[in-house]
Each structure stands twice: as C-alpha cells, then as structure tokens.
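pinging the channel bc i need a second pair of eyes. not urgent but kinda urgent?? the chain im working w is below, pasted from the shared doc
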Amino acid sequence: MPDFKFQISDFRFLVPPGFTLLEVMIALAVISIALMALLGSQSQGLSLGNESRFNTTASLLAQAKMAEIEAIRDQRDLASDSGYFGEEFPDYAWQLSVHDVSFDGAPTVSNRLKCIDLDVSYVPNGRYRCQFRLYRFFP
C-alpha cells in the first residue's frame, strides 16, 4: 500500500485579498464626517470674511460721514437725515439722528451739546449694521 503523508500545512484557506463591506462602510463614514467638518469650517470662514469686510468698509464710511458732521460749524445746520454713500458704495446706507443732551442745573451747556448717532447698514440683506455715537459741543 502506498504511503501517504498528510500535512496540515498543505491546506490553505484561500480568501481573496481586499476589504470587507463592513470595512468599506466604516471608512466611508469616517471620510464623510471629516469632509462635513471641513466644509463647515470653510463656510464659517467665508461668513467671517464677509462680516470683516463689512466692518472695515462701514468704519471707513462712518469716519468720512463723521468728518462731514464735524465740519459743520453752526448747530442749526445739523439735523437728522439718511441716505446712501453714492455710486462707489451703493449697497451701504446711513442714518443720522441728532439729539439734545440735557444736564440738570446747566442749561447753557445743554443747549450746545448734541448727541449724534450714525447707523451704517448693508442694504441687500440687512444682516450687517454698525452703530456709532459722537458727542459734539458747539461753542
């Protein structure tokens, strides 16, 4: 009778190389979470950039408008008003409010001191708005 030797090392469990469905699903979940975080931070960065641009532009426009107000010498020429900043900045609007400041016991000072509020807003979406306040004394 022939002599057959049986060795366990000759039998191999052949599994094709690759990933299982579970491994692929987990990898896709991890990648999608990472991409959502990345897109969220990109969107937030764009929003902050737009807000920063508005704050810078509004501050410079308000500074120019306040310089016009400070150039007024007679307090009768100073009145509440509103408008736009012209052709260069058509989306920016301003509103000026002038109020008297009163002090008890000092009526001569109260007649000469004005509280001037300036609101600068971005018209297309109405989302951005800056407020500035100036106290002006007319000698």
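so The chain is about 40% helix and 25% strand. and The two ends are 130 Å apart (CA to CA). — does that match what u expected or am i reading it wrong
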